[in-house]
Amino acid sequence: MTDSAPPLIEAVGLCKYYGAFTAVQDVSFAVPQGSVTAFLGPNGAGKSTTMKMLTGFLAPSAGTASIAGIDVDSDRIAAACQLGYLPENGPLYPEMTPAQQLAYAGRVHGLSPARLKDALDRVASSCRIDEVWHKPIRKLSKGFRQRVGLAQAILHDPKVLILDEPTAGLDPNQIQLVRDLIKSLAKDKTVLLSTHILQEVEAIADRVILISEGKLRFSGTPAELAAGGSLEARFRELTKGVAA
Length: 244
Hints:
This protein is α/β, with parallel strands linked by helices. It is built from nine helices and ten strands. It has helices at 47-55, 76-81, 98-108, 113-126, 142-154, 172-185, 198-204, 222-226, 231-238; strands at residues 9-18, 21-31, 36-40, 62-67, 70-71, 83-86, 160-164, 190-195, 207-212, 215-220. The longest helix has 14 residues, at 113-126.
């Protein structure tokens, strides 16, 4: 990570209103190139809403989002080419096999047959899904389904990965496998990882963005967040004890 490099993910004054309810209020941050940034906050803090605005799945009420310098609102297709997105409980076709699901996703991305074959070989190996390649997705464990979702997110070799609660609902062994996979992917990609789990921050993040009640509360390194205390104590202080 180089501090002089332009940010690959940037939010400027993002807001989202649902009638009188404010889900996200004036959130601004930048994710530097080459970082693994944990997007931290209690449940209901506005993390998923912010991520959906960053990825173009949800239009902001105000503010702008950009991916690799491309404004998401004005050129969503170009931004999507630079972006791999794994939503929470990512959409998969249960009757398809990983091979079929990923081949379909590759065609949607417009990959040529030769490039698609190379991409399928790459993600099967890097996401460790070779052994279930021809097994229906409905028969896979949640850990394997999550890895298929990650494979789909990186199939077109994007510069940026946005992952929404990628270890939610997994057992400890599955969590470790997904964390190891994210760390390996982060060697050549910029990652924004939504979580409310403090151990996730300690395990894989080099930067932290913390929001609570739709507002930005902190942006910096894990060490800066924990300065003068523990991550847990600072989390509770900044979120006013809101249950995670």
